[in-house]
Amino acid sequence: MRYAKRYEEKLKTRHWKSLWESNIPDLATLKSQVESRGIIVVDAEPWNAGGSFECREFGIAYIPPIQSTHNDDMGFPRTLKAHQKHYGIQSHCVHIRSRERSRCGQAFEFGEVDLVNADLVEEKLLGIIESFNASPESVLVGFDLSFELRVLSIHYPRLLEWFSSWVDVQELAADASGHPRMPSLRDTMIALGFGGDRHAVGSHINWGHCAGNDVVRLAAGLIELMRRPESSPPLNIGQSQKKSSKQKI
To answer: Where is the Gfd2/YDR514C-like C-terminal domain (predicted)?
Structure first.
């Protein structure tokens, strides 16, 4: 697990220590859990004007339990929309009122957008999770999760009660590549075969990111990682010249 013990105090894990210690270490363990549990994917876009660990929008997606990805020959293009339909991925994007972007960013292409006051975001996200019919033992998933874990533990701690374990897709992708360098989401999606889908590849522009689109990218990328046979050669993940500090690009 990349998040060392020294981060525990900053992450305020005392009230969710059981979840913190339930990090999923590898794809094999994840596959065994998602046969009976759903996956909830999260992404938060920072709001720099609000100081540390404030977000301007929050994306959330749900993947129902996946009985098996072994030899799952889907027979359709490797695109986010195709994966969303085939695996029943549900997604929402919550924009926080008065924190809207000053410039136009990506439009959310895969679900509903809600504009919510800052003090009502946690309640809204809880309602969205309930609308997914998710079990209270879902797996929490993100990419380079350090920011999202801080946002959840500081601002939306009630959401943490829904999860029994968590996993960082960035770590899984690095393991699949056999390289210690942590890859960007953009490079990971290209390596997984999504290079022809502009929604999956995303934008090089940090301010243009949409948290709702990113959770669908993450959901599809995670599914493709789980579909790879254990005997597969290392995943050949390239390295973009431009990356964000959160590595989400």
So the answer is: 41-216
Q: Which amino acid is at 168?
A: D
Residues 142, 149: Cα–Cα separation, whole Å: 9
Contact present, 126 and 158 (Cβ < 8 Å): yes
User: What are 53-92's pLDDT values in tens digits?
Assistant: 889 999 999 999 987 655 556 666 789 999 999 999 999 9
Q: How far apart are CA 137 and CA 134, in angstroms?
A: 8
| Three-state SS annotation for the chain | CCCCHHHHHHHCHHHHHHHHCCECCCHHHHHHHHCCCCEEEEEEEECHHHCCCCEEEEEEEEECCCCCCCCCCCCCCCCHHHHHHHHCCEEEEEEECCCCCCCCCCCCCCCEEEEECHHHHHHHHHHHHHHCCCCCCEEEEECCCHHHHHHHHHHCHHHHHHEEEEEEHHHHHHHHHCCCCCCCHHHHHHHHHHCCCHHHHCCCCHHHCCHHHHHHHHHHHHHHHHHCCCCCCCCCCCCCCCCCCCCCC
The token duo for 20 is 């913190």
Give the integer Cα–Cα distance in Å for 115 and 137. Answer: 28
Encoded amino acid at 89, one letter: I
Neighbours of 100 (CB within 10 A): 12
Backbone angles phi, psi at 42, to 5 degrees: -130, 150
Sign of CA dihedral 131, 45, 149, 82: positive
What's the pLDDT score for residue 100? 78
